[in-house]
Amino acid sequence: MERSDGGGERISSDSSTAAGEDRLSALPDDILVLVLLRLHNAAAAAQTSVLSRRWRRLWALLPELRFPSSSDPRHIASALLAHQAPLAFLDVATEDAAAESVAAWLPAAARRLSGSLVFTNRTPAANAADEGEAPCERKRGAAFIDLPCFGNATAVSLDVGYLGVAVVPLDGVFARLTKLRLAHVHFRRPCALGDAVSSRRCPSLEKLTVRYAMGVTDLAVRFSSLRRMKLENMDGLEKLTVATPALEHLTVLACFYRGRRRRPVADIEARQLKVLRWGDLFDRSSVKLGKMKHLQSVCPDVFLVYGFPPNDPCLALLRCFKIIQQLCLTLVYLPDINDRPYLLEDMKMLPGVTSLHLGLTSNGHAFGTCLFHILKLCSGTRKLALEISGKISEEQTTCPAGCICDEHQSWKTEELLLNHLQEVKITEFRGSEHEVTFVEQLFKWATVLTKMTVTFNSLVAESMSKKQYRILRSFSRPEICMEFYTSNEDMVEEMYAPEH
Q1: For the chain, what are the domain ranges?
Q2: What separation in angstroms does the CA of 248 have from each of 268, 293, 375?
């Protein structure tokens, strides 16, 4: 059967003829490259070479190469050598790869890359460290990876699964690098990490992250361009020196706990610093914080409400500041607090704050006494954000009977005037008796409150959230704008909110 195309020429509609016609190969190269990019797999893209001569070299024009699960790293090196286009993105994932296999392709990547590299070597040791276990020592005699110089890369993320890494050559320059992330790394001693991450070698670096690192005892970071730095779980760190005039965000988490020194030693010079998060040991006699006139937010280490050891690092850091725009405190109740001392009385003063952000892991315990104490010390705050967390099942909304968590009842009757508090935001609200009682009291204390936003935990059923909505509204006053939301893993949905 035939049909006309409107111009007099007859076109066959025979199915076999139509099936044999290769219209896809007639498309321009840039369109076909977009098609291959949708595969998200460099090996699969290369396999299209068997289709015809037209497709033989198309994969080599891809601006991005992804190897989601590579069992033979030699194929990565071969692919990089055969690749022809500028390489803007390279993503490699391996399973417990040896240092020799990574060294087979990493130098080629350094020569070819003009954009971002993401390498993830998934290993049991890395997984254990992420779950809080101590990192394992590198095997004696195991090979190291010589980290090459990525002269044209803009971003490098290396999660090597505790493979040994040596930073060479020392005269190389990461000229365009703006972001560097190193995770699960065992640096060769004597460690040259401080020389590697410096203005001399990385003149454009703006963001540095080092997580779960071993082999670094003395780290000196000196930059003129660095704006964000995060150091987390640097096992064995004893001394930290930071001289970064442009630094705005600094995070130090669990880096000094396993050091051989009894107290941390640090010298921080960051005049432009805006956010300081220090979740680590802290001693005012050995940790020197330079002038920070632009500091806006401080986040100290977690504070245990009941338990051991004392919260000295958190309290010592808080004593460094008289006034701060935003204070972020994380309060933790252990699941079993019976026979443990009440530690909140050690907190006798807090900086004057405009915005108070409280992270609360309650584990089902009554927390009214704790929050009352904090608010009494920060009675001048204008904004309060309360994020309730903790692994609580749908059924468990209170702690076991006879628990000591609610033995201090005076907070329910003692007067507290929060005559500056205008806005309150509560997230992960479950509607437990403890939570409802606290919110009821909060309405009484906050005499100038104008807005309250409540987001329910995803485990709260719709019927229960509606019930809690009505209860909380009954505590409110006409001048207070109240908004309610429900949440799940992907999004937050509006439940009840006034029309704007």
Answers
A1: 296-500
A2: 12, 11, 28
Beta bridge mates, 453: 425, 483
What is the percent of the chain where pLDDT is above 90?
54
Rounded to two decimals, the pTM is: 0.86
Check: CB of residue 425 under 8 Å from CB of residue 396. Answer: no
| pLDDT, tens only, 442-477 | 999 999 999 999 999 988 888 999 999 999 999 999
